[in-house]
Amino acid sequence: xxxxxxxxxxxxxxxxALTLIDTVKKKSPDAEILxxxxxxxxxxxxxxxxxxxxxxxxxxxxxERRFTLENIKRAANALLSxxxxxxxxxxxxxxxxVGTGGYVCGPILLAASLKKIPSLIQEQNAVAGVTNKILSKxxxxxxxxxxxxxxxxxxxxxxxxxxxxxxxxxxxxKSDGLKEFNFxxxxxxxxxxxxxxxxxxxxxxxxxxxxxxAKKNSAQFxxxxxxxxxxxxxxxxxxxxxxFDNPNIKIVPYLYNMPQAMAxxxxxxxxxxxxxxxxxxxxxxxxxxxxYPYAAENxxxxxxxxxxxxxxxxxxxxxxxxxxxxxxQLDELLKNPDELKKMSAASLKLGRxxxxxxxxxxxxxxxxx
Length: 369
What we know:
This protein is α/β, with parallel strands linked by helices. It has 2 domains: 2-165 and 353-367, Rossmann fold (3-Layer(aba) Sandwich); 168-350, Glycogen Phosphorylase B (Rossmann fold), CATH 3.40.50. The chain is 46% helix and 15% strand. It has helices at residues 11-27, 43-49, 69-92, 105-114, 130-135, 167-171, 174-181, 200-216, 230-239, 258-264, 274-283, 299-309, 323-334, 337-350, 355-367; strands spanning 2-6, 32-38, 54-57, 96-99, 119-123, 141-144, 158-160, 189-193, 220-224, 249-252, 267-270, 287-289, 313-315. The chain has a 7-stranded parallel beta sheet with strand order 3-2-1-4-5-6-7, sandwiched between helices. It has a 6-stranded parallel beta sheet with strand order 10-9-8-11-12-13, with helices on both faces.
């Protein structure tokens, strides 16, 4: 059996694909996988490092959400890419083609449809992306990560599965996380992350929060700043004579062991990317969410609203975010452990820990056709 996976641009499209590949390989060890991306996206670095065969399409970028001359140029480039994608399909002869988001999915899934090869797209967000909206007319099956997305696609081919979650996120133990980061069980742990690239607004607000937290020493903080933001955050703390030896506060530029960090977290302060929220809810972690305001069609706010409405999270809009508001929200939750327990139970109820299994079963069933 041969399967093409495609997804690119951001980790939110790439890591779900890698999770699905791992799950498919466990179910069908002989499956041959080819990943199609672009040289410009993160996938060109991440996928080969994962030991997966990778090939790239010549694409310049996705479409802007308005009529521009640049869109005409990109449309012509996309048509050429469909021809290139067709050649990749002819050479590899896949039984099924899977897309997890990003403009790179367009040409390869369209080419698969033209050649009558079964195909599936996985939409992570509550608001569907432009590429997936277009592809929904051509693909065989659509798996959505949010119930809100169900109404955006043809009902006869769409199924709600939730978003695929890395196995290690589910299996990591709290004791492993505490040991990994040298934290203790007697104080709550707050995990702060603005995504793989960091979030400046969250980082700026957290500076004063961490300064105040160091004085109280009533909770433990693991703050992931993002590589490009790390120097700025640490300099601001140095200017405030912050004690970096405080054992209750750790500031890092990036985490390669996020599953262990999530395993020990009692509360998270996050953006509202679909993959991050899927992992939080799978672990039953309550959260304070600050959606990225420039996400396409404001989809992060819609993602966050699902958790807020379900009682699993609080939301602060990016435009309203200040150190004072974040501190107030944080203190209110930490002083109310019963509320945190209710939010944790609500979070776990929203989680879909079997999503990768369900989607991989759909992929394997399609391959039989």
